[in-house]
Structure to design on (149 residues):
């Protein structure tokens, strides 16, 4: 079974975290709050990134989403808060998929196929300064493990 994890770290100008439709999914002993497929579809369908548009098409096919409205052909219940939501049904397979994704990430880092960006917010006085910083970081990453800070 394949899993895709799409972590939303910022929503841009069109969407706001407090406006997203969410649902709770139980994965083993853990309850995870996720956006509904319709919400994720609406977030991805009109972006400039081709990857997002491909994701939107896959979401539309997998969840029966209408290309024009983003509606799901199933009942959706809205809640004012997470506390009002009923306990989710167990989904042990989702936890296994998450564990597999984490394990493959650790393995990938061990082989040096991924690099970590520095934590925090960096501020630059010009685009040239930001570009120079990016070039230096890419050079450090290319030089080997532990090169990026």
């Amino acid at each position: 079974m394949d899993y895709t994890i799409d972590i939303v770290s910022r929503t841009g100008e069109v969407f706001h975290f407090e406006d997203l439709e969410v649902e709770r999914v139980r994965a083993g002993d853990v309850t995870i709050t996720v956006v509904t497929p319709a919400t994720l579809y609406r977030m991805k369908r009109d972006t400039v990134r081709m990857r997002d548009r491909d994701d939107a098409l896959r979401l539309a096919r997998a969840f029966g989403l209408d290309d024009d409205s983003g509606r799901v052909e199933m009942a959706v219940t809205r809640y004012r808060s997470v506390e009002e939501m009923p306990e989710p049904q167990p989904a042990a397979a989702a936890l296994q998929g998450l564990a597999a994704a984490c394990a493959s990430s650790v393995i990938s880092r061990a082989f040096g196929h991924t690099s970590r960006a520095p934590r925090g917010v960096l501020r630059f006085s010009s685009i040239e300064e930001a570009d120079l910083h990016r070039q230096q970081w890419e050079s450090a990453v290319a030089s080997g493990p532990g090169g990026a800070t």
About this structure: The chain has a mean pLDDT of 74. The longest strand covers residues 22-27.
